[in-house]
Amino acid sequence: MSNDLYAVAAEDFCLIPMGTGEPSVAGYIAECQRILEKSGLKYKMHGYGTNLEGPWSEVTKAIHDCHLAVHAQGTPRIATDIRIGTRTDREITPGTGNEAKVKRVEDILSK
C-alpha cells in the first residue's frame, strides 16, 4: 500500500471567504474552481461546496492553493469545512470514489 492515502473530500469541502464587504462570494468560489481545474483532480461543484478526490497530498494541496488564490483576491479571512474519507480495505479506482458511493445507493433504490 502506498504511503499516500487516496482521499475523498466529499460534500463538505466548503470554502467561505470572510470580511469581503460584499454579500456574494461567487467570484471567489470561481477562482477556487479554476485552481481545482488546474490541479488535475476529479472535482464537482455543488450548491454548498465541492466534491474533490485524489491522493491525500494532492487533495490537501489543492485546498491550500484555493486558500492562497482567494487571499490573493483581497479576502482577509477564510473558513473551510472539510470532510475527508479514506479506506484501506479495498482499492479505489482514481476518480471513481464519489460516483461509486452514489451509484451504490441508486442501485439499492432501483430494486
UniProtKB/TrEMBL annotation:
**What protein is this chain from?**
Thiamine-binding protein domain-containing protein
Annotated Thiamine-binding protein domain residues: 12-105
Q: Which InterPro entries match?
A: MTH1187/YkoF-like (IPR029756), Thiamine_BP (IPR002767), UPF0045_domain (IPR051614)
What NCBIfam families would the database entry show? Answer: MTH1187 family thiamine-binding protein (TIGR00106)
Family classification: Belongs to the UPF0045 family.
This protein's source sits in the domain of life called: Eukaryota
| One protein family per Pfam | Thiamine_BP
Q: Which SUPFAM superfamilies match?
A: MTH1187/YkoF-like
